[in-house]
Amino acid sequence: MVRLSDSIKINSLELKNRILMAPMCMGYADEKGYVTERLTKHFVERAEGIGIILTGHAYIEPAGKFNKGQMGIYSDEHIDGLKKLVESVHDKNTPIGIQISHAGGVASSSIMGQTPVAPSAINSGKETPRELEESQIERLVEKFGQAADRALTAGFDLIEIHGAHGFLLNQFVSPLTNKRRDKYGGSLENRIRFPLEVVARVREVVGKSFPLEYRLGSDDLTPGGVTIEDSKVFAKELVRMGVDALNISGGLCGGQPSSLAGEGFFIPQAEAIKKAVKAIVIGGGGIITPEFADKVIKEKRVDMVFVGRALLKDARWAAKAINKLKGK
After folding, report:
1. Which of left, alpha, beta for 166 (phi over 0: left; psi -120 to 50: alpha)?
2. How far is CA 168 from the centre of its chain?
3. What are the two backbone dihedrals, phi and then psi, of residue 14, each rounded to the nearest 5 degrees?
4. 228-240 helix and 267-274 helix, angle to the nearest 10 degrees
5. What is the pLDDT along the chain (328 residues), one digit of tens a residue?
6. Which residues fall within 8 angstroms of residue 258, CB to CB, at 6 or more apart?
7. Superfamily per CATH, domain 8-325
8. Which site among 96, 115, 193, 291 is 20 to 30 Å from 186 CA-CA?
9. How does strand 8-10 pair with strand 13-15?
10. What sign has the CA pseudo-torsion 197, 218, 183, 75?
11. Which pairs with CB-CB distance under 8 Å and at least 24 residues apart come from 280-283?
């Protein structure tokens, strides 16, 4: 019987257990996205006993910045700070991955100093964004690739591409935010084209053996939006393009949808995706007890769990969880 405390491999990376620290943007970077001592300390304090730490989303270009204090990976000048962060977590014998993202239409000109960009000129955030031209989409694919290369140079053990929570890649997939009439809009096949191009480019940059993960916005939970059936199709394509693990969360509804409640509120979506693909599937949402996390692993509903707010409340949650489960 597989348990929370058992090891697992994501491509070439072996994890000591099946707990992933959920990517959460703490706002601890400086105004240009550089790593600070406070940010490094935050992750180091939570490194004990955990399978892998995942950073909050790092923006791949200034126009993709979502909030103040967000970590950046849009310039080679970020590499030194990122490298020190990685080394500090590695000193605790814990691997660390980085999530790379672009906020797209939910970005704000008051934060990043320019009009946000999106698949279509539809206000899904604080203002109406500018619709991206095809040449600009192609440039963004390369920006994701450059960010992945910086992550490699900095020594990260895994890269997660952020395709959930109403950010740019998610906006392309959802018919609520994508009204394009070119090859990037209309059918599901067209709407997933840009995210798949990003995945292909990142995989090309990192090579075949490097662990690659995708944060999948599995359901918009809104009429006319992305459904779990859409995401099953999308998930199969993501795996076909080289994604090793799928971290399942919400779409335009965000990471804490009001319509879902209880411990593990994204586990049903993750379980549905797991049945559709041959890849590692990670689920969670409001997990607070080791017993629940262990149960969904034992029942093979998911392969790993992500834990967020419980680790904010108690930095040693993972270590305590593994110790508590010993002998049970």
Report:
1. left
2. 12
3. -100, 130
4. 50
5. 999 999 999 999 999 999 999 999 999 999 999 999 999 999 999 999 999 999 999 999 999 999 999 999 999 999 999 999 999 999 999 999 999 999 999 999 999 999 999 999 999 888 999 999 999 999 999 999 999 999 999 999 999 999 999 999 999 999 999 999 999 999 999 999 999 999 999 999 999 999 999 999 999 999 999 999 999 999 999 999 999 999 999 999 999 898 898 999 999 999 999 999 999 999 999 999 999 999 999 999 999 999 999 999 999 999 999 999 986 6
6. none
7. Aldolase class I (3.20.20.70)
8. 115
9. antiparallel
10. negative
11. 280/8, 280/10, 280/244, 280/245, 280/246, 280/304, 281/245, 281/246, 281/248, 282/20, 282/213, 282/245, 282/246, 282/247, 282/248, 282/306, 283/248
Question: Which residue type is seen at 284?
Answer: G
Contact 112, 65 (CB under 8 A): yes
